[in-house]
Write a structure and sequence with these properties.
The strands form 4 sheets. This protein has a 10-stranded antiparallel β-sheet. A 7-stranded mixed β-sheet has the order 15-2-3-16-17-18-20, with helices on one face. It has a two-stranded antiparallel sheet with strand order 5-6. By secondary structure, the chain is α+β, with helices and mostly antiparallel strands. Helix 6 runs antiparallel to helix 7.
């Protein structure tokens, strides 16, 4: 069930071959990501779980924006090829988003991450720009994996709160249903690539998550009872199990409701004691992205409403202004593209 390959192997596999043909099928702060890519309506769902929220803002970013990697030596420089709609925290960190081609990127916590040693001969981007770089430049999972060496992801300070940076990994999905997970293990990027990589949570590493999943009866093991805890391993198993039996439908509202029921199942309620870690790390928002229709659904846990943005209703051509919308605004409900206001992004 595992498609674990190094960066070198992933690049070699993509040389002249499609990823599906080239590759075989096979506790800290919390988040979960689920890609429902075997349904007529493809959807990417996620939770953002942390000790606090980061005043997240939904940004609509036009194509043609000039960017620079926020590292001291040899920062990458690029102009965004594609428009995107993202959720950013602390004004600068792209936590997730979708671009106009239907590429979706989600950034999650992974305790034990060890980024590559800095090689200043390669252009660098700060780790909190990682999703944005992909959204700006690529349309498919294959393009992302085929260009992994173009920049180096660099662990840098994220404001005064995180002077040592953060250990993270990313999940990538596209409108064709392809999926990939990228982790930095022992200083080397590791790629898990294939349509069957639908679920991602946090620690341990993806290899270990898959090994744990295979212990359960629905996945060929012997353990009959599903885990009910909020730890990353428990959420991984529960998400994979629920996705396996989620009723398929071509009805978009029903598909979104089905996915939201799954995302709620792996959310962390306020006040839940987090085993092994001091404090509580609740879910602050849940999102669902439709990479075909380019609709972005958001449900926060401190407001009673769900709202969504239809990217097709926004002017995101080069030269258009960037637009912002704080996601914790209790007045947001239903289709909310008209609630954006012009702003100056820092991402």
């Amino acid at each position: 069930m595992s498609n674990r390959v190094s960066r070198r192997q992933a690049l070699a596999a993509l040389t002249g071959l499609g990823a599906a043909a080239a590759l075989p099928t096979a506790a800290a702060q919390a988040c979960s990501r689920i890609f429902w890519n075997d349904n007529p309506v493809k959807l990417v769902g996620r939770t953002l779980d942390w000790s606090r929220n980061f005043d997240e803002v939904l940004w609509a970013l036009p194509a043609g924006m000039e960017r620079e990697g926020r590292v001291p030596e040899n920062p990458a420089k690029w102009t965004s090829r594609y428009a995107s709609v993202i959720i950013a925290g602390l004004d600068v960190c792209t936590e997730e988003g979708v671009n106009e081609k239907g590429l979706v990127v989600n950034l999650l916590f992974l305790d034990g991450t060890k980024y590559e040693p800095r090689n200043s001969t390669r252009p660098g981007i700060a780790f909190f720009q990682w999703p944005q770089y992909y959204l700006d430049n690529y349309a498919t999972v294959n393009e992302v994996i085929g260009n992994l060496d173009q920049v180096q992801v660099v662990n840098t300070a994220l404001g005064e709160e995180y002077p040592e940076g953060l250990p993270l990994h990313v999940a990538i999905a596209d409108a064709a249903g392809n999926s990939a997970i990228i982790e930095f293990i022992k200083g080397e990027p590791t790629v898990h690539m294939g349509r069957h990589y639908q679920v991602m949570t946090n620690e341990p590493t993806y290899d270990e998550q898959i090994a744990n999943l295979l212990k359960y009866k629905p996945f060929g093991g012997t353990i009959a009872e599903l885990p009910g805890g909020i730890q990353a391993t428990d959420r991984f198993v529960r998400a994979a199990y629920t996705l396996k039996y989620l009723p398929k439908t071509s009805d978009v509202p029903q598909a979104v409701a089905n996915m939201m029921s799954l995302v709620n199942n792996v959310s962390v309620p306020f006040g839940s004691p987090y085993s092994g870690v001091s404090g509580t790390y609740p879910t602050w928002y849940r999102s669902i992205i439709d990479p075909d229709a380019l609709v972005y659904y958001v449900q926060t846990t401190i407001t009673p409403n769900t709202f969504w943005v239809d990217m097709n209703k926004l002017d995101l051509k080069p030269g258009a202004p960037a637009l912002r919308m704080p996601i914790f605004d209790e007045k947001l409900m239903g289709e909310a593209s008209g609630a954006f206001k012009e702003g100056k992004p820092s991402v």
